[in-house]
What we know:
This protein is mainly α. It has 6 helices and no strands. Among the domains are: about 45-110, Cytochrome c-like domain (Cytochrome Bc1 Complex, Chain D, domain 2); about 110-140.
Amino acid sequence: MPSSRPRAALTLPALILLLAAGSAPAADGADNDTPQATTRADDAPQSPEGRQLVEQRCLNCHGERTLSEAGFGRLGWHATVTRMNWVNGAGVGFGERGPIVDYLSEQSEPSMARVIGEWVVAALLAAGAAFVLWRGIRRWRRRQPTG
C-alpha cells in the first residue's frame, strides 16, 4: 500500500499558496465595488517610535535607500531584523522588534509574489522543524524500556 506522507507534506504549502492567491488585491482595471484595502507607503501612518528605533539600530550600517529598496513583506522584515540581531549583533531588544518591523513594513511595497514566497519559506521551515521534532520523539520513545 503506498504511503500518503509525501501527499501530506505538500498539503500545508499548497494551502498557504491558495490562501495567499485568494487574498491578492484585484487588478487596477478590474471592476471592484469595494474600496482598495491596501495602502501605499506614502499613505501609511508613520510610527515615530519605529522611525526612531530604525535610525538608532539600522541606519548605523545601512542607508535609507537600502531599506527602502529591500521590498520585504512583514514576515520578511521580521526575519531580517531577527537575523540582524542574532547574527550581526544589531542590539535590538525584544520589545523593539515590533515597532521596527511595523515601521519598515509600512515603508515598503512588496510584490504579491514576494509575500507568497516569504510565507512558503516560513511554512517549509516550520514543516521541517516539526518533522525533526517528530523523528526525535519517535526515536526517544523507541529507546525507552518497555514494561
